[in-house]
Amino acid sequence: MRPIIELVDVTKRYVQGDLGVEILHGISITVHEGEFIAIMGASGSGKTTLMNIIGCMDRPTGGSYKIMGHDVSGLDGDSLAQLRRETFGFIFQRYNLLGNATAQENVEMPAVYAGMSLHERRERAKTLLTRLGLGERLAYLPARLSGGQQQRVSVARALMNGGRVILADEPTGALDSQSGRDVMDLLRMLHEEGHTIILITHDPGVAKEAERLVKISDGTILEDSEPVSRQDHVAHPKATIVTDHTARTALAMDIAASVKTAIRALRASPIRTFLTLLGVMIGVGSVVAMLAFGNGAREQVLEQIQALGTNLLLVKPGAPGVRGAGALITTLVPADAEAIGRLPGVNYSVPQTVDAATVRYGNVTYTTTLDATTPNFILANNWPLADGAFFDDADVQSYAPVVVLGATVARALSPGGANLIGQYVLVNNTPLRVIGVLSPKGADQTGNDRDDVLVVPLTTGQARVVGHNYLKWITVAVNDTAQLNATTTAITALLHKRHGTIDFQVQSMTALLENQAQTQSTLTLMLGAVAIISLLVGGIGVMNIMLVSVAERTREIGVRMATGARVFHILLQFLTEALVVCAVGGLVGVAGGLLVAVAGALSGAAVVFSLPPVLLAFASALVTGLLFGYLPAKRAARLDPVVALAQE
Fold it and tell me: Rounded to the nearest 5 degrees, what angle is found at the Cα of 330, between the Cα atoms of 324 and 335?
């Protein structure tokens, strides 16, 4: 009968710097199906190293190791993991149960890596635990179980995928005498059912329970009793094999199990998890809020462009590039506006003088802006009246003492809402009769209140109120937008001829507002960059915490590898944890950013909500998790299972 395990002249050598230490010296041993073998030796004799090699947890330095006739010495890590998963079941002295998983979840672990369905593995784990007397403790965490109960959970885990070969490493070493006898009874029962049992012990009393005794000392076999053939044993259940159908769904099941484990790990350290989430939350929230405000500002500019029309030109005093152009420069006068108005293709030319003014009505005094202009002002600004009438050309010609109030000024002068039409107000101590109130316009793209204004005839404002005749700017409406460039050239030539120099600027209103929109976009990008930097800082925090998590959970990683986890499973586990952190942080950040944007909208800021920025911000959080979680995950996946299990 072909042996299930065959070692021939196996050696194991560890190299530390320039020194090499050989632990096993030409070990040869053959194990047949159904044997119950005790490998006994003192501490440091090499028995644990031998067990690690037999269980495919470690590789021999030399010699041949065959399982069912196949040499496994040169297999890669994933192939060895498959052998551990489908052939071996491990029972450890310290149980090696996951402290934050229930008894049933600990038992299910090997089946997760074998691709067994959720329902099937739950039922099998329940059956095994019930059979071992733990049916009422399925949902207990290891801390709530006695040592003997924990070891029985470990036995159930070893049997989860079949456990054709049970490797028991000092299974009674951490137990009291009664619990130790119970575990040995379990091993004898498994032996009778056909399992191959390899027991590692230093206790002669435990070793005598086996049918075959192998004594090892200083890496050499001193004694090996005759192999016992167990051909009469009951055939052992085969390990679970993943079918084609299961293989297609295995990844989904792996991800689901990884997400569950990730959430459990995060809940174990809530404060650390919150601090890790904080950077991601701030970054994502900033992206959502800044894009909402930035898009709102751009939409506001576009609305203003549509409201003003695309056929407007703005003539401002001061040569192009002059610092402070339009502030105290007096190169434009009303005659320039009249001359521009006579050019071919010009519909109308609106001169404007803008100054600060104090208006008084009754016992109310209010400081606002005075705009002295012509009747076409309401056309140039697309600004209808809410009440009364606007002044006309006759009022301009006669220096009429009349005024039209902006909505903000009207409210300030008459808090009770009384009608001011026909009433006199003092503007810079000049009495003017109110003839109309403009409809509300709201704030412009810079946040200035456009309704905080008084509008008077140009002649009245210059002669009676402010006492000067220079203009702040001239708004020109062109008949045909196709002629904007030609009209700009004509205005430039006209004013150059009139002034003898270029002491003015001619700008398209559309171009001006588009420049403002571009400036707003640049500001939004800058704020977005700050948000991205915050997200990167959060990502670095995630990476640091994940590296700490790998260091703290090294033994857990070793247990997972011992139960059949491949490199992919470990990599997926820790990547999933990083993604869960960033996903939760992203969701909270999105909610926070939307709340900030809503608060801004309620306070009057321009805000535009749209799905793409939210998706972009959330996707950025996930990408952050992938990028910054990969290094810790890769480090975890590269751990040697033997080294990992040896960590405290």
Answer: 135
Q: pTM here? A: 0.64
**Per residue in 201-230, pLDDT tens?**
988 988 888 999 999 999 899 988 865 554
Length of the chain equals 648
Rounded CA separation 317/602 (Å): 39
What's the DSSP call for residue 461?
Answer: I
Give the Cβ contact number of residue 178 at 10 Å. Answer: 9
Q: What is the SS3 assignment for 144?
A: helix
* CB hemisphere CA count around 384 (13 angstroms): 3
Collapsing DSSP states into helix, strand and coil, what is residue 432?
strand
Q: Exposed, middle or buried, 361 (CB in 10 Å: 0-12/13-18/19+)?
A: buried
- Residues pairing with 168 in the sheet: 91, 199
CA distances from 98 to 142, 153, 167, 545, 574 (A): 8, 11, 19, 20, 16
Residue type for 320, please?
P
Residues in contact with 531: Cβ distance below 8 Å, sequence separation at least 6, in sequence order = 283, 286, 287, 290
pLDDT digits 0-9 by tens, 90-106: 998 888 898 888 999 99
Ordered structural domains, the chain, with CATH: 5-242 (3.40.50.300), 255-300+516-646 (no CATH), 330-502 (no CATH)
Tokens of 620: 């950025």
Q: What is the CA radius of gyration of the chain?
A: 43
